[in-house]
Amino acid sequence: MTDSDVVVGPIDYLIVEWPSGRPPTGEAFPYLLDLVDRGVIRVLDFAFIRKEDDGTVVGIDIGDFDLDGNPDLAVFVGASSGLLGEDDFAEAAVAVEPSCAAAILVYENTWAAPFATALRRTGAQLVAQGRIPLNEIIAALDELEAAEA
Question: Would you call 47 exposed, middle or buried from its count of C-beta atoms within 10 A (0-12, 13-18, 19+)?
Fold first, then answer.
């Protein structure tokens, strides 16, 4: 089996920070579950950290969040492929403010797997990738709208 035969979509990660004193409420988790249930993504790693005032990083167990079972976070317990290591947690902590909690999510874009696999079979390779921040899109659309007025 070659790399071009492996059916896998692009792998992405994101880090979400909650401000000090405002832990996750669980409101967004059903949306994540929906993406998984519909086969849009596959969660490879899902971890929570807290950056202390002195800069040290502490792992937070999902069971430590008291959300009264709404949503039931037990489905995420053990969501670990082993891709994330201590170096990754330290690197993620650079983006997180002191006294804040953060979630690190590594996921496969399963929706793109057949497309990506077909491209690899033809010898194509990814040469650039990026994401346009939402606030830039909104600003650009606002400018267009103002220019048309």
Answer: buried
